[in-house]
Amino acid sequence: MTTDYKPAIHFNNVDYSIEGNKILRGITGSFPEGKITTLVGPSGAGKTTLLKLCNGLLSPDAGDIYIKDRQIDSFEPVELRRKVGIALQSAPMVNGTVYKNLALPMELQGEELGKEQAESLLHDVGLDGKFLERKTSDLSGGQRQKVSIARTLVNKPEILLLDEITSSLDRTSLKEVEELIALINRKFGTTIIWITHNLQQALDIGDYSWVMMDGEVVETGRSDLLRAPANDRVKAFVQGGAE
Ligand SMILES: Nc1ncnc2c1ncn2[C@@H]1O[C@H](COP(=O)(O)OP(=O)(O)OP(=O)(O)O)[C@@H](O)[C@H]1O
Fold it and tell me: In angstroms, how far is the first alpha carbon of the chain from the final one?
């Protein structure tokens, strides 16, 4: 699907099993550099599993994964974590202030996050510097997700993995987070791989889409494919809306 762009991540015939059950089968394809690709498909299709393979949280049983031209298992874990960031629906936080949470990734690497740098990260996600001293327990869902995204930006990742980051947000916050991700993509050229159950969102913000079913990638291409899928199962899924 992506011959017109360089791949940021490439899967070559990847399988992944849990306790003998094949969760992913023969995954082959590329996520284009600097583009937004959405992963859509029914619950249990294997989307989160595929995302976790992209940053080394899981390793394949068979096949190869490349980040740019390098095999994923040739990266040191810290190097991989810097290159490939991840944000989750639950936006997990440690107790304490926003600053404490933003500083965490650098602390884990034995470094310190300066106040100005922390303010600049908040600025990047559209939050005022005064949020640094706020307790994370006092944040709204949308603010929490923005802080979670700011925390991933600390390492200036080339690739950002997003797992259902807007599914618990109200409409206004959802739109703000969509715009924020589009801005990060444009401003920093960050490659985005975004799991969403919201097909309208995939059409609105995605350049490309992978449709997954039963552990396989059944259709890929420009996001427009979701308007008129070639595959009958994808057609039924799209017509049924996001389950
Ligand atoms: N730790 C685990 N142990 C056993 N089975 C698992 C585990 N993690 C995932 N699975 C199974 O693997 C399959 C794929 O799960 P995965 O979470 O990747 O799907 P998904 O497409 O992300 O689903 P959803 O949209 O509901 O998040 C499911 O059948 C799930 O039950």
Answer: 26
Q: Which CATH number fits domain 7-86+158-239: 3.50.50.60, 3.90.180.10, 3.40.50.300, 3.40.50.720?
A: 3.40.50.300
Q: What are the structure tokens assigned to 213, written together?
A: 């079913």
| Boundaries of every domain in the chain | 7-86+158-239
Q: How far is CA 94 from the centre of its chain?
A: 21
CA–CA distance, 38 with 41 (Å, rounded to integer): 10
Q: Is the CB of 18 under 6 A from ligand 1?
A: yes
- Nearest-CA residue for ligand 1 atom 9 is 49
Helix intervals (H) in the chain: 47-54, 77-83, 98-108, 115-124, 141-153, 171-188, 199-205, 232-239
Distance between CA atoms of 159 and 190, rounded to whole angstroms?
A: 6
Q: What is the pLDDT of residues 103-136, one digit of tens each?
A: 998 888 888 999 999 999 999 999 999 999 999 9
For residue 41, the ligand 1 atom closest to its alpha carbon is 21
What would the pLDDT profile of 199-232 be if each residue is shown by its tens digit? 999 999 999 999 999 999 999 999 999 999 988 9
Cβ of 24 below 6 Å from ligand 1: no
What is the value of pTM for the model shown? 0.93
Question: What residues are paired with 168 via a beta bridge?
Answer: none
- Residue 217, ligand 1, Cβ within 6 A: no
Q: Are 194 and 35 in contact (CB under 8 A)?
A: no
197-150-133 Cα angle (round to 5): 125
Whether the Cβ atoms of residue 63 and residue 27 lie closer than 8 Å to each other: yes
